[in-house]
């Protein structure tokens, strides 16, 4: 198996910098659009294990240099399974039929049963693993407790997060109860994915960055730490035990990296506002760093994509002595991305990062007087 | 004159922490909505000096504890004066009739003539000063060169800034030419406001935070430094010379505070993700800090607003030895804000910050053995 990603997440030496892309199975690929059309709707695609498996593997077939698969699913499967009724309005983002606003709404929320309510996700995980045949590791994922709460209270996306923040400021006790329920559901959800075969997990804290300093720590970071305290950190497969590394990604969380590194995760995703070298100096070798090319850099010509990718690689510097970098974007890939940009990106990362390590090794040999 | 704001921006001691609110003249006030209805449209309101003056003063009449007036105007007056044709579609944000995409579009942009193209803004500034009669200082403002470029290229607001970033990545040379033209226009615009009577100026870099580290420095920070290099730093009124402090606010720019402090500004606006104590330790006493309450905290009950305001004041700590804090929100006030929340906020800031200084003085006297 290509275990470069897992090794990097565990801060072990790798022959090159592994790379995968958030939302790599997505609308920028014609083959994805074809499967999506066959499925009829985004939700049908996400809820049919065979189709979810199919689109999960599409980018790997097109781009042999990708070092990971990520489960194709929606971030809102958990609140949907809690009974909120997820749907997609035409041309708009996700919506919930029922929102969570009152004491009674929170009390009514139960941690979903993973087998009966979210079995389709676990079937997809297991099918993807079988189909992958060990080519690359499979990453499972969930939204963070706070990010799920944003959608559950707002009933969909939001510009100012007024409803969820009003609840937070007016009823912090109730918000904490909601977050605790979400944390339990997220931990159970990720653990079920691990048991179904996920070899790494990622928590998307997409809206952590809308919280003020101080409240972020209480309302997003603390529930993510709770999840980590209850996360399976190993899985057993064919009698063999393997660690299951976790990644936490708080978009807009660049000011809180030290605290995020203390959640118990193995790696931190960072957006493009973060300088990877500065981030590395701040968190040390406690966690690997994942990121952080601006997805819009892929709108440029292949030669320019190469230049921007090099900027990111150079900002991290040489991955050694427990410092590890997983190349990724700083956010999901745009549906408008030309597929050839991804090609240029992946080749640049592989070529440059291989050469970077070789040159460092040559320098060591030279310094130690070897011929 | 109440010069507490100006003193704080210049890092001089003040008897309490001055406070004003971004977008303090706005839709959350019934009196604003009445004037807006009389004007017929937002643009008519912004372009009629008497009405712009009227709404600028409304929050000061309602809230005597405010320490500044800020010119009521739109952030896009400059590109409008460059000939792009600003308009507001019903219930939507600002739009431009013409956008800037090509070499020819950029070449056609001229720095507007301040008297003939933007005279209505200067008239409003001068009228507000006359009407204020020195109650509080008047802050003038402009969008940053990069933020204006975002609207000029996108033709309005954007979620992913795809057009402006595509131009940046594909034609960095052309983008820099556009930014240079904007920087010249912004400097001329702010200088004209200063000559018309503005006693401080603020640059709103609303979209600086969407740029990656490295490119932010080149495409947003450098043009703001250029503006500062060409900014009038003093004004003469009735034979008296006074300094004109400047404030730079990059939303989402918390990772770049040290660099922002080097633009030549006197104060940095910061959003609510920033811890003021940590920011103060990073930038030292080179600049004052302005901010940073989450505007959504004002959705809570008055007692809770008080608690959140105290959190912000305490995070800054005692303003002394050249460290200064101007209390503000971390973004414009929401139209949904209950006006009594603002009352509670202003009283808390004045009362707590006055007591804070008195207690510190008592402690000094006590330590020095005074009775």
Your description of this structure?
With about 375 residues, chain A is α/β, with parallel strands linked by helices. Chain A has one domain (about 5-365): Alpha-Beta Barrel (TIM Barrel). Chain A has 16 helices and eleven strands. Chain A has helices at about 5-10, 30-40, 40-45, 50-60, 75-85, 105, 115, 120-130, 145-155, 160-170, 170-195, 215-230, 255-260, 275-285, 300-315, 340-365, and strands at about 70, 85-90, 95, 140-145, 200-205, 235, 240-245, 245-250, 265-270, 290-295, 325-330. Chain A has a seven-stranded parallel β-sheet. In chain A, strands 2-3 form a two-stranded antiparallel sheet. The two termini of chain A are about 35 Å apart. The mean pLDDT of chain A is about 95. The interface of A and B includes residues 165, 272 and 299 of A.
């Amino acid at each position: 198996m290509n275990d470069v990603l897992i090794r990097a997440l565990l801060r072990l030496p790798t022959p090159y910098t592994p790379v995968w892309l958030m939302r790599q199975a997505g609308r920028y690929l014609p083959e994805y659009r074809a499967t999506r059309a066959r499925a009829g709707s985004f939700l049908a695609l996400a809820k049919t294990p065979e189709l979810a498996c199919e689109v999960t593997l599409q980018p790997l077939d097109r781009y042999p240099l990708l070092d990971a698969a990520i489960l194709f699913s929606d971030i809102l499967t958990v609140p949907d399974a809690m009974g909120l009724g997820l749907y997609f309005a035409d041309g708009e983002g996700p919506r919930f039929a029922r929102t969570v606003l009152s004491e009674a709404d929170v009390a009514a929320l139960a941690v979903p049963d993973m087998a009966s309510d979210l079995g389709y996700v676990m079937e997809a995980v297991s099918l993807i693993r079988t189909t992958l045949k060990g080519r690359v590791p499979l990453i499972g994922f969930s939204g963070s407790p706070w990010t799920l709460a944003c959608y559950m209270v707002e009933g969909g996306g939001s510009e100012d997060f007024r409803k969820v923040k009003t609840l937070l400021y007016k009823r912090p006790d109730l918000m904490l109860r909601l977050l605790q329920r979400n944390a339990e559901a997220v931990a159970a959800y990720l653990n079920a994915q691990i048991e179904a075969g996920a070899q790494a997990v990622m928590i998307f804290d997409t809206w952590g960055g809308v919280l003020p300093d101080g409240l972020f720590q209480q309302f997003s970071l603390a529930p993510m730490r709770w999840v980590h305290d209850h996360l399976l950190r190993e899985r057993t497969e064919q009698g063999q035990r393997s660690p299951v590394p976790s990644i936490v990604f708080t978009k807009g969380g660049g000011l809180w990296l030290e605290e995020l590194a203390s959640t118990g995760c193995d790696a931190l995703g960072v957006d493009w506002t973060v300088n990877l070298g500065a981030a590395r100096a701040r968190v040390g070798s406690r966690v690997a760093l994942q990121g952080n090319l601006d997805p819009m850099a892929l709108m440029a010509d292949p030669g320019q994509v190469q230049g921007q990718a090099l900027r990111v690689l150079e900002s991290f510097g040489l991955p050694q002595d427990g410092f590890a970098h997983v190349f990724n974007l700083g956010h999901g890939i745009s549906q408008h991305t030309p597929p050839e940009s991804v090609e240029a990106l992946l080749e640049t990362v592989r070529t440059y990062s291989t050469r970077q390590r070789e040159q460092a090794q040559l320098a060591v040999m030279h310094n130690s007087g070897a011929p």
